[in-house]
Specification:
Distance between the termini: 56 Å
Low-confidence stretches: none
Largest sheet: none
Oligomer: single chain
Number of helices: 2
Radius of gyration: 19 Å
Mean pLDDT: 91
Order of helices and strands: HH
Number of strands: 0
Helix content: over 70%
Strand content: under 5%
Structural class: mainly alpha
């Protein structure tokens, strides 16, 4: 099996594993990922703000 076929098989297995989760767990995961991205943006904004004030 080639490299890309292996990646495709792994992706299919991961999608099947996620689809088998209860809907409330999928929702928690989705919201948790969105919350982490939002926190990262806030932290990045605060760091930029601090750098600009340090001048």
């Amino acid at each position: 099996m080639g490299h890309w076929q292996q990646i495709g098989r792994d992706n299919r297995e991961e999608r099947a594993r996620r689809a088998a989760l209860p809907s409330w767990r999928r929702a928690i995961r989705t919201h948790a990922e969105a919350a982490l991205v939002a926190v990262a943006w806030v932290v990045a904004g605060v760091l930029v703000w601090m750098v600009l004030l340090a001048r």
